[in-house]
Amino acid sequence: MRTESHNIQLPEKFRATAIRHTFLFIVLFMLFQPYVQADNPSNESENALFKTAHQAYLDGDFETAQEIYQHLIDRGVLSADIYYNLGNSYFRQQKIAKAILNYERALKLRPGDQGILFNLQLANTFIRDDIQHEKPFLLLYGWKLTASLLPPVAWLAIHLALFLCGLFLVARFLTSNASRTRVNTFRLAILSLSLSLLIMALSFQSHHNIFGKSEAIILADTATIKSGPGKQSNTLGHYHAGTKVRIINHEEGWLEVKSADGHIGWIDEEKLEII
Prior knowledge:
single chain, alpha+beta, Serine Threonine Protein Phosphatase 5, Tetratricopeptide repeat, 3 domains, 5-stranded antiparallel sheet, 9 helices, 7 strands
């Protein structure tokens, strides 16, 4: 037989857990807040600059458009539209590597966008390196694509709602005397808490998709691939402007990278820029 004090103390414990979890959510929300606020120009000054850059592009003044879009980015405006337009400005100036870099950055903020994908594929036809891409692991690709459907803070909000619902169901389970109600609430609590953990993982994956620094674009006309960090290492080959690589390691101004076809080598970090 359960005592009255037992029924009262356990829900209090879970309410304390909920309070701690809510505090964690608020902290994480503050960390992710720049992404939420910066998806588009957020004040009159930034909107005016965006329109000025757009008009300069329409007038064929691509260099001015490029400078203004870059100025907005330097001010902390994180927007797929700005990166996309900046990529277009570079492309029209035949600066293909820079165009690819910014199309890739736009795609991180808006995965699956057909306009960005088309321009990126078009720009990639102009690079010298003809690298056959490895087929992505289907489950991993699907996981990343799912995480990209919502910004991190939206996943966190869903996670918090499911977690609090799970805590409520646990409290209901512990205080109920009806066996059928206890079974049903226990099952729902397990389901809700399990989904909340899954959604939390999607939130972190979404954050990594946007802010992760694991890929880069070669910007130098030619980048020498070395067998190790340092100019004295053996030369393995060369990459050219516009080629995309994955960063594996970093050591004293050198990056160990892996190309899309699986080749690994070291490149001077000044020869590329992180997406």
